[in-house]
Amino acid sequence: MEYSFASIVFAFTLTLIAGLSTGIGSAIAFFSNHTNTKFLSLALGFSAGVMIYVSFVEIFFKARESLVGAIGLQAGSWVTVASFFGGMAIIAFIDKLIPEYENPHEVMLVEDAMSGRKKKGKLMRMGLLTALAIAIHNFPEGLATFTSALTNPKLGVAIAVALAIHNIPEGIAVSVPIYYATNNRRKAFRLSFLSGLAEPVGAIVGYLLLMPFINGVTFGILFAAVAGIMVFISFDELLPAAREYGEHHLSIYGLIAGMVVMAISLLMFI
Question: Which of 167, 162, 174 minimizes the C-alpha distance to 29?
């Protein structure tokens, strides 16, 4: 499959914006003494709703369509399902590599770090390891955003927005402990910002390694794996974090709103 230079630039720009939204989390942390948990709960639920809906309704079936067209109905259907769960296995394995107490998706509140209950050395270590963990997590997310935007721009925009929201609390998780360990806003913001660069790096590496070999089969496998990655992120990270940040009903309202917005946006492009 051949893609124009404009399509590649557009897909990369979306991936860059999604990744660098960790900087928004840093800004929220620096200019607020209290975390707006209701807003974050709704936003994370919304992000999960967008990713779950688009994965099951759009991406999975486009992957199956491509694979069935390339290798037949039975083989294509089996490979689609295997690739979907393979994507889940990849992101689950990445998650397993990161200790739970350093996982970027553990809820971090601004006021908790301000309370001074953790020593500065431990805070600094937590912030640095969280930045590394986020970089590892963001690599496949960058590939997912880039691939989606390259093949279907409207899907790419939706996924980029969802992942951008998802990255906001990650920015908080990096910048808050580093800031309160060093009292240096610039350093905390820079490390938080840089951790988000793993998404565009994932896009570049994915493009250079995979795009020369893209055909109906590899596209279908990659797209099904992207769907699996996003569903896993939603169920394992976004929804649990949304519930911890706020009330149970808020996260569900956000989830439904995300699905509704995604459904309407897809219908508008029929």
Answer: 174
